[in-house]
Amino acid sequence: MSHMTPDNLLASMPTVLLPLSAELTIDITNWVLALGIFLALNTAFYLLKHIVIQRLVWLAARTKVTFDEVLVAAIQGIRPWVYSIVSVVVAAGVFNLPEVVHLVMFGAMYVALVWQAIEIVLTVINHVVGNFVRRQDNGVTDEAQVKTTAQMITLLARIVLWSLGGLFVLSNLGIEVTSLIAGLGIGGIAVAFALQGILSDLFASFSIYFDKPFRIGDFINIGDDWGTVEKIGIKSTRLRTLLGEELVVSNAELTTARVHNYKKMEERRIVSHFGITYETPPALVRQVPNIIKASFAANDGGRLDRVHFTTFGDFALIFELVYFVESADYDEYLRIQHEFNLDVLERFAQHGIEFAYPTQTIHTKMQTPAS
C-alpha cells in the first residue's frame, strides 16, 4: 500500500473548475485540496488538544505524583500558531512552489517545532530542578531561592537546547553543519575568554546554590560589610546592610571571601575583660568568681564558661570572663548582657568592690636643703 501524499491526493481528485466567464475557467483543484488539508489538520489538532489532552489532564490529576501533571500541562500549552504553521506547510505541498519558498516555509516550520519542543523540555526541567532543591533542603528552602535556582539552570539548558535545535534546523534544510560546529567551537573559546568574568560569576552562583554557605534571609558578614541576603542572582548577590542601603557583591568574590553566617549560629560565645582596683582586699578578690557565678545563676539565657583573675594590669587587677548566650538573636544577646552587667554592678557595690579606671599616682620626693 503506497503512502498518501499531496501528489497522490491531487491525482485521485476530480478536477474542480471555477468559471469566471463564458470564455475563462480556472482550475482550482490545488486550492480546494490545500484548503481541505489545512482544515483537516486543524480539526485533528483541535480534537487532539480538547479531547485527548483533556483526558490526559483528567487522568494526571488523579495520580499522586506531580510530574505527569507538569508534562501534560506543558503539552497542553502548545501554541495554536504552531499547529497553523504545520498545517500551512503541509497544505502548501500540493503546489509547485519555487525551491526557495519551500525552504523558507519548512525553515519556519522547523523553527516553530523546535521552539515549542524546547519550551516543553524547559518546563519539565524547571519542575524537576525545583523539586530537587526542595528535597535536598527538606522543604526549608525559600521559594524565591528555588525560583532563582531553577531560572539559572533553565537559562543554561535553553542555551544548550537552542544550539542543538539550531543545528537540527540547518541540517534538515540541507546546510552542511560540520564546518559550522568546528567554527562554533573556536568561537566558543573566544567568547569564553571575552566573558571570563561573567562566566566566573555564573559558576560561582552554582557553587553558592549547591554548597549553600548562606540562604536568602541570612545575616552575613563579608569583610567590613554586614547585611541580610535579599537575592542570590546569576551574577551577583544583593545584601541589605544595617544602614539600609543595598550592597551588590559579585558571586565570584563571595566564593573566595571569608563569610560569617550568623543565621546558622546556635549560641553566641562572649569573651570580655574587667578590672577591679588594686586596693581590693585579697579575700574579696577571691570572691569575684563566686559573685559572677551567682549572677549567671540568677539570670536566664546565659551560661557561664569560666572566669579567672588573669593579669596585673597597669592600674587594675584584670579578670577574663567567658560565657555563652543560648540564642543566635542579637537583641536577645544584648538583653542578657544588659541584665548581667547591671546585676554584677549591684553585687560588686554590695561587697564594696570597685571597678578600676585609668589612674596615675605621682610620688614626690622632697630633698633636704644642704646646711
The H/E string reads HEEHHHHHHHEEEEHEEHEEH
Q: Give the strand content.
A: 15-25%
Describe the biggest sheet? 5 strands, antiparallel
Q: Rg, please?
A: 39 Å
Describe the protein in words.
With 371 residues, the protein is of the alpha+beta class. The chain is 56% helix and 16% strand. The protein is built from eleven helices and ten strands. The strands form three sheets. A five-stranded antiparallel sheet has the order 6-5-4-3-7. Helix 5 packs antiparallel against helix 6. The longest helix has 38 residues, at 99-136. The radius of gyration is 39 Å and the shape is elongated.
Give me a quick take on this structure.
With 371 residues, the chain is of the alpha+beta class. The chain has helices at 6-12, 29-60, 67-76, 80-91, 99-136, 143-172, 178-194, 196-211, 251-256, 282-298, 330-351, and strands spanning 17-19, 25-27, 219-222, 225-232, 236-241, 246-250, 259-261, 268-276, 302-312, 317-325.
